[in-house]
Task: structure prediction
Amino acid sequence: PTECFLSQPEEKQESAVKAKKRKKKKISDVLQKSAPKPGVPADLQNLLSQHFGENRSVIEIEELKLSDSCFLPANDLTHSFSSYLKEICPKWAKLRRSHKEKKSVVMLVLCSSALRSLELIKSMTAFKGDCRVIKLFAKHIKIKEQMNMLEKGMFHIGVGTPGRVKALVEQDALCLNSTKYMILDWNWRDQKLRRMMDIPEV
Result:
């Protein structure tokens, strides 16, 4: 009996220690300590190989690797969004004029949330000029509305969330053949201090 009595408090102590350990491993705590740094091509490559590593063959994973020439210079966090876009896309006016295709955009910006998408649309005013921007997120906008807009109108920039963009591409409502630039909102953190790639659904 004494052994039984002894084992109970030990278990409690162990579970208390485990609970403490779990509390320490909150993602927001870890992210709070890490300073923001610009994303680099290797970050995205690692993310792709982690995601597809389990269910793809070695040859398929090799095919997923993008050469460094596919990547634009990352925002070094000194630029505003408009000034960054001006730097990476100096011939925007010419690209905008030559774009005539419906169901497509020249530039696609991916963010982690609808609110962040709206924030970026407002902050690109100096860059976009009179070109048309379409909101590609689920909040307050039905997918059929977006499909109709893409079919009838012509848009130059699309700003939205990965989930809705994926759904539009899968339903052939958004064609990426004429897309020249894809911008990932890599460093922005939400209220839980998660970046876009820290969210499992993304």
In short: Residues 72-198 form a domain with the Rossmann fold fold (CATH 3.40.50.300). Confidence is low (pLDDT under 50) at residues 4-8. The first strand starts at residue 107 and ends at 110.
